Amino acid sequence: MKSKKVFLNGQLVPVTEATISIFDRGLTYGDGVFESLRTYRGTPFQLEEHIKRLLRELKQLRINLPLSAAQLKLAVLRTVFANNFKESYIKIIITRGEAKGHGLDPSNAAGRPTAIVSVEELKPYPKSLFKNGWKAIISSIARPDVPTSRIKSLGYLNNILAKMEAKKAGANEAFLLDARGNLAEGTISNIFIIKNGLIYTPPIEAPILPGLTRSLIIHLAQRSAYKVVEKYLPPKELYAADECFITLSGPGIVPITKIWGKKIGSGKCGQITGSLIKIFDAETMQP
Fold this sequence. Notes:
Blueprint: E1 5-8, E2 11-14, H1 25-28, E3 32-40, E4 43-44, H2 47-61, H3 69-83, E5 88-95, E6 114-121, H4 127-132, E7 134-142, H5 157-168, E8 173-177, E9 183-186, E10 190-195, E11 198-201, H6 212-223, E12 228-230, H7 235-239, E13 243-248, E14 252-259, E15 262-263, H8 271-284
C-alpha cells in the first residue's frame, strides 16, 4: 500500500498522501460521477468508451472538468503504469470539487473539480465462477425512474442497501425492479435472460445504467447470429428462463444459476451463456 500511486488533480502521488477537502461536494452530496474498468494483458479495456461516457455525464451535471479526453486517458495510463500490476481494476472519480459555502447550489463550488484515478491489483477470477455462477435475489429496493439512474453518480445508497439484502440472503447479487415491477438491473450489473434461444434484456428506456459491457455483449451476440430483444421483463420471465446472466466490467459475463432458492435452467452455466463467455474471452484477448 505504501508504494501505491494515485492520480489526484494532475499529479501522481503516494496513496498515503492523497487527500481531498472534507468539504468536497463528492463527499458531502455525492455530487460527482465515476467509472470502473479493468485491464486485459495490462491494457485498459474500453477506455475511450468509458471516458466518453464520463465526459457526457459531467456535461449533463454541468461539471466543467479542466481535462480533455486525451488528458484523462493519459492520466489513466500513467496510473496503471506507475503501479505495475499484472492486471488492474481502475476507478476514475470526478467530483464538483470543494464547496465554498453551505447549500445544494452548484455555484457554491469553490474552484476546479476534483479528479482522481486509482487502481487496485485484479486477481484472476476462478474458473468455477463461470461454470457454477452466482445466486441472486430480487431486492425490496426499487430502481427509481430519475436521471441519476442512468448515470454512474456517486450516490449509490440504493444499490448498497440492495447489496446488503443479497448478502443477508447468502446471495452474490440483487436485482432491482422499476416502479412498474419489471426487472431493471443488478446492484453492479445489467441483466439478461435467455428463453427458447432468444436473449432478452431490459431496454435503455428503463431506469438502468447503459453498461458498456452490456452494449458490447449485445453487439457480440448479434454478430454471432443470436437474436437480442430489448423489452420490459416481469420477474415471472426470470423464473421461467432457460438461462440468465449478468454483465459487468470485472469478470465480463457471470451466469446467474439461482434466483432465491430456485435453479435457473440446470442450475449451472447454460449453453448460450457459455458460448457468449467464450466469444467475450476471445474479444478481450485481442491486441
